[in-house]
Amino acid sequence: KMRFTSTLYPLLTALSAVSVYCQEQRPMADQNLGPAMPPTQDSPSASAPSDGNTVILSDVLGNDRSINIFAGFTRDFATISQRFEDSSLNTTILAPVNSAIMRLPRKPWEDPEDYDRLGPNAYEGVPGEERAQKNLRRFVEAHVVPASPWKEGEKVKTLAGGEVWWESKDGVKVVQPGNIEVGSVASKVYNGEVWILKSVRNYA
C-alpha cells in the first residue's frame, strides 16, 4: 500500500469543509481524492526573508481559501517556495481553484502513461511515491510563470517548460493554450501576482 504521509493529507481530506467557500464547487459522485502526496525530498526553504516592509508572493498565496489546495501543493517543493520568497524573482502564479482540481479526471500526481506502463499499482511503494512526487512537481511548475508584469500576448515558458500566453476576451483574461479563464487577480505584490484560474490545464 502507498504510505503517503505528506501534510497535504489533512488538507485534501478536509475538502468537504473547504468546498463551502468555493462558489464554483459542483457535486461529485466521488470526492475522495485518494492518498495525499509523499513527503518531498527537498529540504525546508532556507532563503532569506525579504525586509519587513515588502509584501511578496509567499506572504499572500495562502490567503485565499479558494486556492488552498494548489497553495498546499507548492509548499511540498522547496525550490518553488524559495522562488516565491525571493523578492528579486518576479513570478505570475496561475492558481486553479479547489473545485477545478477536484473535477480533474485524475489526481494531479497521476499520469495515464504510468498506468499504461506499470498497471494499477503504478504509485505503490517507494518507487511509486517518487513517481507521484515527480508528477506533482511538474503539475505545480506548469502553473508558475517566471514573469511579472506579464504583458498580453507575451509568450513565456512555465517552469515546467510549456509555452503560455494570455489575451483579453470581452474584458476577461484568458490563458492560452486552452482558453483558461482567469477569475480574478487575487494579489499584486512586490515580486509578482497570483491569478486565480477557473479551470485546469497542464501547461507542462
Concise overview:
The chain has 8 helices and 7 strands, in the order αααααβαααββββββ. With 204 residues, it is of the alpha+beta class.
Low-confidence stretches: 1-50
Total number of beta strands: 7
Main CATH class of the domain at 57-197: Mainly Beta
**Taking Cα atoms only, what radius of gyration do you get, to the nearest Å?**
17 Å
Going across the biggest sheet, name each strand in turn: 2-1-7-6-5-4-3
Molecular shape? globular
Distance between the termini: 29 Å
CATH architecture of the domain at 57-197: Roll
Largest sheet: 7 strands, mixed
What level of helicity do the residues show?
A: 25-40%
CATH level 4 superfamily of the domain at 57-197 = FAS1 domain
Biased composition (Polar residues): 40-51
Protein name: FAS1 domain-containing protein
Domain FAS1: 54-201
Region (Disordered): 29-51
Draw up the topology in text.
Blueprint: H1 8-13, H2 15-18, H3 57-60, H4 68-74, H5 78-85, E1 91-96, H6 98-102, H7 112-118, H8 125-141, E2 144-145, E3 156-157, E4 163-169, E5 172-176, E6 180-189, E7 192-197
Parallel strand pairs: 1-7
Antiparallel strand pairs: 1-2, 3-4, 4-5, 5-6, 6-7
Give an account of the 3D structure.
The chain has 204 residues and is an alpha+beta fold. It has a domain at 57-197: FAS1 domain. The protein has 8 helices and 7 strands; from the N terminus they run H-H-H-H-H-E-H-H-H-E-E-E-E-E-E. The chain has helices spanning 8-13, 15-18, 57-60, 68-74, 78-85, 98-102, 112-118, 125-141; strands spanning 91-96, 144-145, 156-157, 163-169, 172-176, 180-189, 192-197. A 7-stranded mixed β-sheet has the order 2-1-7-6-5-4-3.
